[in-house]
Amino acid sequence: MTGDSSARDIAHHQPMKFAAFEGLYNGTEGAGLIALGVISQTENDPSNENLKDFAVKVEIPNILSYMAFLNWNAFVPGINDIVRGNEKYGVMSATEKITRGRVAIEKLTLYKDARKSGQTAKADSLKTEIMNPDFQKNYFSYFGYGYISNPHTLVPSVAMSFYSFHIMVVLGMYFIFFFLAALFYTLKGKIHKKRTFLRIAIFTIPLAYIASQAGWVLTEVGRQPWIIQDLMPTMAAVTKISTGAVQVTFWLFAIIFTTLLIAEVKIMMRQIKIGPKQEEGLSDV
Amino acid sequence: MFETLTLLSLQQYWWLIVSLLGALFVFLTFVQGGETLLFTVAKNEEEKTLLINTLGRKWELTFTTLVTFGGAFFASFPLFYATSFGGAYWVWIAILFSFIIQAVSFEFRLKPANFLGARTYEIFLFINGLLGPLLIGVAVGTFFNGAMFSLDNMNHVTWGTPFRGLEAVLNLHNVALGLAVLFLARVLGLLYFMNSVHNQAVYDRSRKHLLYNTIPFLVFFLYFLIALLFKDGFAYQPETGKIVVEPFKYLHNLMALPINTIMLLAGVVGVLWGIISSLLKGGTKGIWFAGSGTVLTVWSLLIFAGFNNTSFYPSALDLQSSLTIENASSTHFTLTAMSYVSLLVPFVVGYIWWAWKAMNNKPIATEELEKEHHY
Predict the structure, then answer these.
(1) Mean pLDDT over residues A212-226, rounded?
(2) pLDDT digits (tens, 9 = 90+) for A120-141
(3) Which domain does A252 fall in, by range?
(4) DSSP secondary structure code for residue B34 in this structure
(5) pLDDT on residue A1
(6) Among A9, A272, B106, B374, which one is most buried in terms of CB atoms within 10 A?
(7) How many domains does chain A have?
(8) Regions of chain B with pLDDT less than 50
(9) In a domain, A191, yes or no
(10) Residues of B whose CB is below 8 A from A240
(11) Between chains, do B164 and A112 touch, taking CB under 8 Å as contact?
(12) Given B100, B112, B154, which is nearest A270 (Cβ)?
């Protein structure tokens, strides 16, 4: 299953995103999977607006550990573990990563300055230091953290990640049953007689777009603040254009695409009204 | 195979590929050129639909080539991509929008209940045909005249004007290139009509307008080329990594790269022969001479922009921020991996050729309009 291996990839490479969309605040061994849940408005951690309790949740024990690490009792780090660190399980704190990231940035800046001012010997020795495998592993791999000032900004919106993920999963399950039913009726040759099913089919069309959009929201909101995990935060990557320019672009897109959408819908409605072409030899399908 | 090449060889290989894609794109802008001629060449609705149908069979090739050009640039010279697309923001947004309105126009124009009416979609096509070649020509002009950016230590772009790239139209040399590309696109569009539309009236009118468009094309192109050879250029000193202004830089490149110069001359001769033979003798083959001539000409010009230690994206704001194929490229590893992928390019070109032939199997004539679905 691709969804399954994708979950393991995310658990390894983007543990914060994983914890956010699973709504896992405090890591534990044998972590349970929250199948369904409603996030309450009260803050779990007053210093971090992204941490909110569940008002209601349905939890299946141990599944999450298995999904992430193929081990029913594995430790899955939660949001708090990733921010504060967890010595017992070897999770480094965000503050430590930030310190190391700053060391990496400083060294790279020194190298670039040396090269710019023509101090070749100094630049070469700095380059050797930077390229050293230990430095790469222990400092350079936290480069992006050097741009972060408040560790809480490392937490993406839990509610948006959690809900978009669950909307996607629930719809995905629904599609499986829906298409099995469609296949069943088609093989029996009576799909065109099932009026209720055909009505459901019409309402299923927009659900595909919703599932797809929910997937994108999860991917892009859940990855924040990273544009390249651990190496480059979004705020360092973003083009420095004015707010006005962004607004103008947004409205240009909104106006043009809304206009074209109206045209598209009108054309489609007309074509539906015209109906399928009557072809000879095909009668009741 | 590729991993044994030096970084510089890989950079040059990729500059050749990116330049070739750019050159193929300019040839394929005959679609845009044709879009600007709908109201000129067609005298009634039927002829107009004929022209739009013949362009509608090809617009995807042009657009896909543009996207591939951008994609190849992103992968091989990411610092250019980040600097230009993030920096010269408004130019690229304008180009993007001109292409957004193009695609749907072919699709929607003659559909019943299309909300805006056929005329609006024809105007959308005209806007795309005008702005696409013009702005892309102007943007490529900055490869020779410089753009208003500076890069800090971490390669963050700062743009020197609030117009974000649109200020390039204030430079006469850039504008000359933009207009040369626009009129070339129109010339190619006319030659394409002469080749593909089986309608005598359209053929005769296309041939008549060929002359009117060739004259401004030649004026702007020759001005661009001659001014280029006599202007200062942006040279790169490989020993120090410094960028310096060098008088007659492109003339020096012309002499330093003789094979490329021969290609440029062959290309110009091809374009001229395609036009002149069509003007004097008629026929339908002009597009092939002018088209392959265009590819050779643009390819060689882009090679002049990046080879022989030249900065291909100079900064007019901060000389040392200028980009060269050496300082803007991906790493040896990435270029190597992509070079293997590039071996697939001939297959892609083969597919384009095959698709083109398949689409041309049915000649476009007035009779076709009655039975085929319209764009």
Answers:
(1) 93
(2) 888 888 888 888 888 898 899 9
(3) 239-273
(4) H
(5) 47
(6) B106
(7) 4
(8) none
(9) yes
(10) 156-158
(11) no
(12) B112
A133 CB within 8 Å of a chain B CB = no
Test A263 with B156 for CB contact under 8 angstroms: no
Give domain status of residue A278, yes or no.
no
- Check if A41 contacts B (Cβ < 8 Å): no
* Whole-number pLDDT of residue A285: 42
Structural domain includes residue A54: yes
Interface confidence, given as ipTM, is 0.84
Q: Is the domain of A176 the same as that of A255?
A: no
Instruction: Say if A282 falls within a structural domain.
Output: no
Kindly indicate the confidence band of residue A283, based on its pLDDT and cuts at 50, 70 and 90: very low
Q: What's the rounded Cα separation, in Å, for the pair B19 and B303?
A: 7
Per-residue burial over A51-68, b if 16 or more Cβ lie within 10 Å, else e, is bbebeeeeeeebbbbbbb
Which of B89, B123, B319 is the best residue to mutate to test the A interface, defined by the most A CB atoms within 10 Å of its own CB?
Answer: B89
Long-range contacts of A185-192 (CB under 8 A, 24+ apart): A192/A284, A192/A285
- Tokens 């291996």 belong to A5
CB contact under 8 A, B115 and A266: yes
**Which regions of chain A does DSSP assign to beta strands (E)?**
28-29, 33-45, 48-60, 75-76, 226-228, 232-233
A258 shares a domain with A183: no
pLDDT tens digits, B131-166: 999 999 999 999 999 999 999 888 889 999 889 999
| Owner of token pair 């029996």 | A188
Q: Where does a domain end: A89, A104, A124?
A: A89
Which residue's entry shows tokens 């001229």?
Answer: B272
Instruction: Specify the pLDDT at position A46.
Output: 64
Which residues of chain A have a CB within 8 Å of the CB of B241? 115
Q: Tell whether A68 and A7 lie within a shared domain.
A: yes
